[in-house]
Structures
1.
Amino acid sequence: MAETLSTKKKAEQIWKKCLHFIKENVNEKNYQTWFVPIKPIEFSDNKLLIQVPSMFFYEFIEENYINLIKKALELHAGKDVTLNYLIDVNTTSNDSQSKIKLPNVSVNTKNPPVNVNNGSSSSSTKINPFAIPGIKKIQIDSHLNPNYSFENLVEGECNRLARTAAYAVAEKLGQTAFNPLFIYGGVGLGKTHLAQAIGIEVKKRYPDKIVLYVQTDRFTSQYTEAVRENKQNDFVHFYQMVDVLIIDDIQFLAGKEKTQETFFHIFNHLHQLGKQLVITSDRSPVDLPEMMERLVSRFKWGLQADITPPDYETRKKILEKKIELEGIQIPDEVISYIAQSITTSVRELEGALISIMAHSSINKRPITVELAKEIVDKFARNINREITVEMIQKVVCEYFNLKPEELKAKTRRREIVQPRQIIMYFAKKYTKASLQVIGAMCGGKDHSTVLHACRNIEDLKDTDRQIRTYIQDIDKKLNLSISTKPL
Ligand code: ADP
Ligand code: MG
């Protein structure tokens, strides 16, 4: 016993020093994700045994951080120390019934635990007691775009965690603790691509699984329609039948309580059966406004992985990938030039490349840095424009043939109130202005009036054809006013 205690103490001491070193060499988030969960178990015979929460965790550390850990160990425990892993299965999930049980194994870094999965294969194949043999699974359209595959998605520091986790989810379907996998990040950084890649990979590996990709807007309008036709049950049953549900841009569920409630039930049902959920969002769960607390807390059950803008090298690789897919050739210095100039999103990077190719082929000009410069300059000038509250006011006034002063008048006339509410709705949707600011700019309204207006338009948009047309038209005009002008 004394022996065990001292080897444990020793392990703790060494690991504490190693952590100190590691902390200085990785960013805080990675430190919290990958190092804090590790437990030092024992140190004896020059071997340090650490416990990690899952097989995936072990693999991720081996792939990404082993050199750093080696260095830390060299510094604090000497050169000849080997690292052994213990995989603790009991910590992998909140929901033990849906996860596999790996036997505790001790793994030398030089000897990966190849037989771990095989050893537990009988317990990992789950039998569904409700499946009636002989009934053929129905076919549904998964709504997957074959271009959005893992092969076509370039990996970089910006998406490493998200991509690795996504791949693990697809490869070891139902066996990772990443349920839901919550992918978040800014516009055009590859969330949809990555989420779709999971679906494609699952279909490739497990053709019988029902995979369904759905945009949140579509989910919402399907739900509204189901309510109108009194077919809520069919709607819910349909979604409860899938094995992998990918729901894109969940932030659009904000403020839609009924749809959230329904999604909550679908989520619970699927999660309990060990079905995989993949969710994307433009922000982290805690930053989602007007989202039911119960739902937000579930989003945090699995893994949250963010995607950040790509660095220069990754931008270059992405361009090279696109060029390879297009089957064309572009000089290296042109690629470097685009990668240097467009830094904010992959979608813009692609857009610039496509413009350059189009311009070159239409005008029969060779693709040179000079041509790239002309186009990128114009492109950058346009894409940096943002939609402002003023722009929205202008577009809406023009659309309804109103004078800006009329909008600010104290009146309850529908011809004024509705456009004003539409402005508030778009201001909340597209700008970073606070509700107070939006209210102040729309005739001195307070923030609850703005919130009410936004909800009202949201609801009408789904139920009132006329309003839907207004919203679609104005949306187009707004986006047109900031998009790239034809060259
Ligand atoms: P988001 O959903 O985050 O707004 P998308 O997934 O629609 O972004 O990505 C925008 C475009 O950029 C897509 O055409 C996608 O294929 C491409 N893209 C994004 N990230 C990558 C990447 N890492 N490698 C290759 N293409 C990418
Ligand atoms: Mg998207």
2.
Amino acid sequence: MTDEIRKLKEWIDQSSNIVFFGGAGVSTESNIPDFRSVDGLYNQQYDYPPETILSHTFFMRNPEEFYRFYKDKMLVLDARPNKAHLALAKWEQEGKLKAVITQNIDGLHQAAGSRTVYELHGSVHRNYCMKCGKFFKPEYIRDCEGVPRCDACGGMIKPDVVLYEEGLDNDTIAGAVTAISQADVLIIGGTSLVVYPAAGLIDYYRGNKLVLVNKSSTPRDKAADLIINGKIGEVFSQLV
Ligand code: NAD
């Protein structure tokens, strides 16, 4: 165990008010690609850049192309939680961790057993007809040919994920801000911290134990009290 990991273990052992803020890097060890790593989706070739495909305008104008990308790259239904998800769920069960705030849409924190999860960017597990509001499971989306349509009214179905140009849910932001502002230890992991407004939420932290666990450096490294460069699943498995 390195000195940094030993320090983090000490802080975790002493705290009963840990909050975790994470991103796509938390799920790469579950084989879901992130956006900005070298093997991430932004470094693969598509007809349009992923930021364009994943925008509200593109979804409305070009749903066929949107769903081709979404089903191929974003809708990963056979992924399993990894050691990072499992450690966070365990800390919550032990009364040490108060909330997970995630930019991920894959539902793996809940699959690991976490209960208080603020999904800033929504979830692939919820899907609604844009016309009548009927709810659909992700398997329905996966199994539809082309653009998924409502079996009740024929309306187009939209995944409950926040696309570029769309706002975040107010209640989710409020819950995340409260958790962060009251946290004793804030662990940030597996995120490039460049997607706003999500990344800005960490500014609500008032404590002096801000920990960054990431494979690469981030624009917020200077603000951290402790930096651990490594794979988050490997790091967390040493802490439980
Ligand atoms: P990002 O791709 O911008 O950054 C990922 C960061 O995680 C990088 O800094 C990378 O170095 C680091 N990383 C990768 N694997 C890691 C590991 N095993 N351990 C530690 N660090 C690791 O992702 P982001 O910051 O979350 O922002 C991009 C957007 O991507 C988010 O809005 C999110 O909704 C979306 N997204 C979600 C998923 C998912 O749900 N699993 C997958 C891809 C993208």
